[in-house]
From TrEMBL:
It comes from Phytoactinopolyspora halotolerans. InterPro entries: Acyl_CoA_acyltransferase (IPR016181), Bact_Acetyltransf (IPR050832), GNAT_dom (IPR000182). This is GNAT family N-acetyltransferase. It comes from the Bacteria. One of its GO terms (molecular function) is acyltransferase activity, transferring groups other than amino-acyl groups. Residues 2-162 form the N-acetyltransferase domain. Keywords: Acyltransferase, Transferase. The keyword Transferase applies. PROSITE patterns: GNAT.
């Protein structure tokens, strides 16, 4: 069974490897090994993963399956009353088991506990599974962003958080 928990420093080599796995559409390889090989350093594209506990006013969680990192996700302050969800990954061999949904629920609960009213995140249209996943979780499109040099469009999402114990906004 997968446990969603705060990351530990000892998780970071697997977190770094997770961040570099091909994650786009059909390139998400379900045959990627468990456990993942440990990376020696954080990926250059994600320098904040060198020390995720320093995410501004946030947290960093992992999904742990028998001591192996199979999911990652963090929160950081996005100004006003918004927490930004960052670095969400689910190991390709463990997808479609509810792990991502459990991770997102835990992140949203942490955001609410930290006093945030909304969560925001973004993903790209070259990851249609991720776009569909976030919409299924109740995130709504806020805006899109394209650049000539990109081969995709970034979709920015937002979701209001429940604000009381009765499940009402």
């Amino acid at each position: 069974m997968v446990t969603i928990r705060e990351h530990r420093r000892s998780d970071l080599p697997q977190v770094w490897t997770m961040a570099t796995l091909p994650n786009v559409g059909d390139t998400a390889d379900p045959l990627a090994p468990l456990p993942l090989p440990a990376a020696a350093e954080p990926p250059a594209a994600f320098p904040a993963l060198a020390c995720p506990e320093r995410l501004p006013r946030g947290t960093f969680l992992v999904g742990d399956l028998d001591g192996h990192v199979v999911a990652t996700g963090g929160l950081q302050d996005h100004g006003d009353d918004r927490a930004e969800v960052v670095f969400v990954r689910v190991h390709p061999a463990t997808r479609r088991r509810g792990i991502g949904r459990r991770l997102m629920t835990a992140l949203e609960q942490r955001a609410a506990a930290l006093g945030y009213m909304r969560t925001v995140l973004n993903t790209a249209t070259n990851q249609p599974e991720a776009v569909a996943f976030y919409r299924a979780l109740g995130y709504h499109d806020v805006r899109t962003e394209t650049r000539r040099e990109w081969h995709w469009t970034v979709v920015h999402f937002e979701k209001p958080l429940l604000t009381d114990s009765h499940g009402t906004e």
